[in-house]
């Protein structure tokens, strides 16, 4: 399979839609982003690995006011796998209500279904050390 320009656009829009739905509290639309059995791994930022759309929705609601007020995604890079899945790597910036922010990298596995492209696995990796800084700085 070769990714078409239309596939690339659809996947980029899928990844971008994440912030709009979460920030707007439209958690009942997560099926538009993720497979029903999605694995959403936030262990690197102090959370757990969440299994399934329903559990992901519950986890977002449980965070309450600790949720960022803004999820922003940039720098989407797509790599095609031989099995038809796509690996997407993107940068995320989360803005908290107190104005502080954090940067992460999203590592996604994306699959095509009857409903279109969906994220089946997401690993969220924290960015803690700037380029050139010693580890642990």
Automatic annotation (TrEMBL):
It comes from the Bacteria. Residues 4-123 form the SnoaL-like domain. Pfam families: SnoaL_4 (PF13577). This is SnoaL-like domain-containing protein. It comes from Streptosporangium album.
């Amino acid at each position: 399979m070769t990714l078409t320009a239309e596939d690339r656009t659809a996947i980029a829009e899928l990844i971008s839609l994440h912030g709009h739905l979460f920030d707007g509290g439209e958690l009942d639309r997560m099926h538009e982003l993720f497979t029903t059995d999605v694995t959403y791994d936030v262990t690197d930022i102090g959370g757990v690995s969440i299994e399934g759309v329903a559990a992901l929705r519950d986890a977002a609601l449980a965070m309450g006011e600790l949720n960022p007020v803004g999820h922003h995604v940039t720098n989407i890079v797509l790599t095609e796998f031989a099995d038809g899945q796509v690996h997407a790597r993107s940068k995320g910036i989360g803005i908290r209500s107190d104005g502080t922010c954090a940067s992460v990298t999203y590592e996604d596995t994306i699959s095509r279904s009857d409903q279109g492209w969906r994220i089946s696995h997401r690993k969220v990796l924290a960015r803690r050390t700037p380029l050139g800084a010693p580890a642990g700085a």
